[in-house]
Design goal:
The chain is 38% helix and 27% strand. With 238 residues, it is of the alpha/beta class. The strands form two sheets. Strands 6-7-8-3-9-10 form a six-stranded mixed β-sheet, sandwiched between helices. Strands 2-1-4-5 form a four-stranded antiparallel β-sheet, covered by helices on one side. It is globular.
Length: 238
């Protein structure tokens, strides 16, 4: 059995005193792709931001690799090996592809490590190698999403968290980027994916959690969720 890499236990969190997630519990084992799916506003991004250390739980516990990271600030969480690709990509538009990637490795001063990681992400996303001197803001939505993921991979994370992968992408591109995620996972990176496109996410995931109004309402293998009457009715229009 794979070791549990990330464990979220009964986490409550919100903004300005207004609760958004109510007792969320989930776990991600080493080597898995786990999807958190649900409608817009269900609490998916808040869950991700809380794990990443961008906000802290009011209650509950988050452990990573057996270590309590409940109140770790984001830069410490990153150093421990959790990389977060936020919703909407958040690239530095006025910087080149290469400069964005170098910023992704800001926790390392090892030039040979950075060079090696750059080559690895260029192998994974050949289009970025061709565009390395291009400004990020001049790229297409799909290319920007690939760059955001590549930037997240620059520290060689143990866990890559991707928020709303498909946002603003054409369906054909969503498929391509999902294929990239499977490749990244096969190369040894554990992935936690938040996604509104429920079917697409569950088709590449090993397991999933369905979140509604800040609570996990269903969990299981990806196949169990895809076959579930509730998921089919609520999210797949069947």
């Amino acid at each position: 059995m794979n070791d549990v890499l990330l464990k979220v236990e009964n986490v409550h969190c919100g903004y300005g005193g207004i609760p958004v997630i109510h007792g969320v519990s989930l776990e991600v084992k080493e080597g898995e792709i786990v999807a958190i799916v649900g409608a817009n506003g269900a609490g998916k991004t808040t869950t991700m931001r809380t794990i990443a250390g961008l906000m802290h739980p009011w209650k509950g516990k988050i452990s990573f690799n057996g270590e309590d990271i409940t109140h770790s600030p984001a830069h410490n969480t990153l150093r421990k090996g959790i990389s977060y690709v936020p919703e909407g990509r958040r690239l530095f538009g006025k910087l080149t592809v290469r400069e964005n990637l170098e910023l992704g490795a800001f926790t390392s001063n090892d030039r040979s490590f950075i060079k090696e990681r750059m080559e690895e992400v260029f192998n994974l996303f050949p289009i970025l190698a061709k565009r390395e001197k291009q400004l990020a803001e001049t790229m297409s939505g799909g290319e920007q999403q690939m760059l955001a993921i590549a930037r997240g991979l620059m520290i060689k994370p143990s866990l890559l968290m991707i928020d709303e992968l498909s946002l603003g992408l054409m369906p054909a591109l969503v498929e391509k980027v999902m294929e990239n995620i499977v490749e990244i996972n096969k190369s040894g990176t554990t992935i936690l994916l938040v996604e509104q496109m429920v079917q697409e996410a569950l088709e590449i995931a090993h397991r999933g959690y369905v979140i509604q109004t800040g609570r996990i309402v269903l969990s299981g293998t990806a196949k169990e969720l895809l076959d579930s009457e509730e998921v089919r009715k609520a999210y797949l229009g069947m």
